[in-house]
Every structure is written in C-alpha cells, then in structure tokens.
Amino acid sequence: MSQAFEIEDDFAVVMQQLSAAAATSPSAQEDAQSATASGGEISELTSAVHLLSRRIEVLEGSFSRKFEALQFQKLEEQLAAIRDTETVNQKLFDSLHKELISYRDNFVRESLQKPFIRDLLILFDDLSAIAGQFGDFPAGADAGGGSGQSHDNLKNTLHFLLEILHRLEVNEIEQKETVDRTLHRVISYEAAESAEEDGRIVRRVRTGFTWHDRILRPEEVIAKRFQ
After folding, report:
1. Domain map (residue ranges) of the chain
2. What dotted CATH number matches 112-225?
C-alpha cells in the first residue's frame, strides 16, 4: 500500500509541474536563456514520468502476483472441498455396499442354507443313534458276519457328513468339562458328592453345532449338581 501512496504523490507532482509549465510557456519575446531553462524543466518532467511509469509497472507486477496467489489458494480450497465430498461419498457407498452384501448373505443363509443344514443335522443325529446301537467293535471283529464292516461304513458316512457340514461353515461345539450355559443345554442332572463336582458334565447326549461363529444348536448334556 505504501507503494501506491508513493505513486499517487509522484503523479501529483508531475501533474503540477506540467500545469506550471503550461501556464508559463515562453512567448515570442523571451530570450534564448528562457528557452534553455524550459528545456531543462521538460527534461526533468520526462524523467519523472518515466520514473512514475516504472513504479506503476512494479506495482502492477506486485498486484498480479498477489492476485495469482489468492486465486491459487481459492482453487486449492475448492479442490480440497471436492476431495472431501468424494471421500464422504465413497465412504457412504462402501457402507451401503457392505450392508447390501450382508443382507444378501443373510438372505441366502436363512432362506436356502439353514433349512438344508437342519436336514443334515437330523440325518447326523439318526446315523449317530444307529452307530450307538452297534456298540464298539474292535478292528476286524466279526468280519465274516458283516456287522463290523457295517459299523465301519456307518462311521465313514458320519465322517463324510461332517465334512459337508464343515464346508457350510457348520462346526461341532468344542467339548468342555463343565457346563457353559451359552454352549450347553442340561437335560438331566446327577447328584454330585462335593461342591467341586457341581456343573461337571457326565455324558453328552446330542452334539452341538455353531454356524458362522454363532450357536446353531446347543450341546445337550447330563451334568452333576451338588445340593
């Protein structure tokens, strides 16, 4: 701003000098000395005008640089605002996409897979009950009668059925020594002789399963209870 004031002062001085020169312009009666003096004044005025022109150029350059810097800063702010908006929109899109995928997966699981899985569990329970009726056969025992071979075939079928369930992300509940109410359903109790035995699992009646890390059905057990 000080440069602007300086240019205005110089311009005012030049204009005053030009006005004075116009008012005192030489007449036909003036001598050669007056003409020489006027020529010196005009030379000084010309120099002042050139100086004023250079200062104006400097000021214009300064204003131009400041204007360009201001425009660049505004452009950066606008670009930053656009990037922020795009980031927010991308986050909203990603969130919506995840919700749609979750909805699709839940729909497929509940509508298509779950009924099929429940049928497989019923088949597993039936085959397990039949296998329990055979009892434990030593390897190769009663091979001639075929009972031992049938028992082995049944065990292989159960193993294959479990593999199918595992591919569907259905897994057996890990066996524990004591009752966990989130994993087990106690169908019967036996008397415990001490408080330390309270809640200890005596026998597992039906296998429990998880599906996608959630309880599909609890394990049914018989446990001890101290009274």
Report:
1. 112-225
2. 2.30.22.10
